[in-house]
Amino acid sequence: MAEPPAQDLLLAAAFVSDAQYNRNIPFKTSPEAVRLYYLYNHWMMRTATYFFIFLNLSLAMFEEPAVYPLPFLVTSVLEVLCLLVFLGRLAHFATVTLHSVFWKDTKNICIMVAILLSLTDLAIYGVLRVYGVRSIRWSRIVRPIFLINFAESRQIRRAFRSIRNTLPEITYVFLLFMFSLLMFSLMALKLFGERNLQTAEGLPYFRNYLEIVFDLYVLVTTANSPDVMMPAFDFSSWYALFFIAFVIVNTYIFMSLFLAVVYNNYKKHLKNEIRKLAYMKRRKMIEAFNLLKEEEGEQLVVREARWKQLVKLVAPDISNSHRELLLRISDNEQKGFVDKKSFVQLADLLNIQVVTLKLRSHPLARWVPRVYGSAASRLLRGLVRHRAFVWTYDAIILINAIFIALDEETPYISYAEWVFLALYVTEILLKVYTYEPRAFFGKTQFWNWFDTLIIFAALTATILNATLKSTTKYNSQQILDIVFILRVLRLIRIVDSIQRFRVIMNTLINIVPTMLTFGGLTLVVYCVFAIIGMELFHGKIQFFPADSNAPHALECGNPALKDSLFARGKYCKNNFNDFASSFIVLMELTVVNQWHVFANGFANVTVQPAKLYFIAFHIVMVIIIVNIFVSFILEAFFVEYSLEKSEVETAIEQKIQELGMGVQEDELQDEQLLDNMESDEHELEGEGGTKPQPKGLVFKIASKRYRTVDALLQRMFEAEIPLEDEGPSLEEILNLSPSAAIPRNPNSESVA
């Protein structure tokens, strides 16, 4: 059979690349459209898009009210430039995707509407500014739409979908919670309203129903506990029962119920998303196979030569040795072709981080072989490789921690720091002497780099501090602060030495990519509320230095705050006078503590309904988004701990481990070392530190700390899909619901 044409190979590579990176873009399949699709997905195009998205968001820092004000002409030109880039990116997307799909896609419509609104608002604002009329830049609130709706932000959109899908269930719980809150507020009004009680500030206590509702809502967050209870408690100890019952019902039961509902729905919708990704990846790989398939007897296969060409297109950066290893796994019996079942696994093979270590001898073994190979040298290297060496330095770190906590001015304590530094420097030198330096300082050797940088930075700072102390004209407090921080950071090293600590660290590393997704989600919410807050509260509260003689300086520039908790707490710098200050206030509101003081303060300088702004932020950020983030953390730890106990691995990973050193250097035409070299000081040594190292290339799977939780969940679900199952159609996949049964795979609903 004739080989498939080059355009088919290019199209198949696009399908495989989409499957590898879980992209779901229904692009056109013409040769020109495929080339444009490759350009659309190029990393430089994506990076440029993100750059202009964040540039557009950051313009709020330089627009009135501004942290660093720039002329209106400059900010408007930058905004128009960003909008033109967005329009060009959208036009590029329209050229590669089907028109029927493009115009039905809500996110494309949102981007076009946001561009139109932004240009219209900018023009109106500019004209009014020319005539000296002050207006509101209301379109700034739509800027986060660009971060959410471009194709590159599918993780953030998935998070928003989780929120949207969770809202119906949360709504029922929230309505029940509000009913409870209103009932308790009514009881509080009847119990305390007629007793002429006063707060510590001398204000009427629980006489206004709406004020009672707000105070009790704050009590749910524990921010005003026990202050809100004290007037009633002072009047009669029995009234404490009312507040105890309120806290149990609303704080402990309802808030826990919110978390339970969010977590349950998060898991359900996460499973549905992962299920869609798994089936979509399967269909993409089958489409690629159908483009390259040839007949071999009674079965359809992809020839070895075409398979290699495909992998070169999809993953051009991997070496021939890596590619040869992948072929050995796909063509296990070395028949010269890859069957359908093995071909479908190619995206998984490319996603597994295979690291290759080309074993080298130590430079000293080449330069001074007699000295490096002597009995004394072998004994020293054996001691460094032994576990006792690690334990000894763990003990030294703990002893160092005790000395750090002691008085620095004591001479013996000061001298001890030099001893510890000498011990740490000696440790680094011994390890570099024992292990091959390029392997010891490999790209993925985080802890080796961390130790070396921290120790030598601390050594440099300590020497500089000691030198500066010898002069009386220079205050070295800043250098001393750096030294103290570096000393404390050295204690982090012990984390990687304890197994359970390592599990937690691995989990934290695994969730970093998804934490960035929640960071984007938080950024969107913060931007929206910051812009609204600046329009509502700008200039209402001012900050004055402590020695200022300005009128009402003690009341944050506003007499309405006289004798208020806000002014007495000196919270004047917490204002919405610019974008950066607004972000700080929102961060403090997210922490929850004292948020009612902020709400009351800004309500006093505006109107009482302004408290609704702070209540809305608390509901959106704390009750919904933070609970979803907590749900993800819980799921991440469950997955990580289950893997630690059961050592869950896919069949592909097991095959690579079984091959071990099966691909030798002399069997390959290319002896190039992979860029993603990884070695470990314990893995370099062999058992007991004396096992001779083999020669050639060693292949192994990257550490678990480089696996993301989403990838692990997806593999767990794919393990339950039979290899022969092509899955439902594309339309069925896109319309899958959490409760829908999966065609030809009835067991998939049991996936966690």
UniProtKB/TrEMBL annotation:
Ion transport domain residues: 48-268, 387-642
TM annotation in the entry: 43-62, 68-88, 109-128, 170-189, 238-266, 388-406, 412-434, 446-466, 507-532, 612-638
Keywords: Membrane, Transmembrane, Transmembrane helix
Membrane topology field: Multi-pass membrane protein
Subcellular location as annotated: Membrane
SUPFAM superfamilies from the UniProt entry: Voltage-gated potassium channels
GO MF term set: monoatomic ion channel activity
GO cellular component, one term: membrane
Keyword Oxidoreductase applies: no
Top-level taxon of origin: Eukaryota
Name of the protein in question: Two pore calcium channel protein 1-like isoform X1
Organism: Pipra filicauda
Gene this protein is translated from: LOC113996392
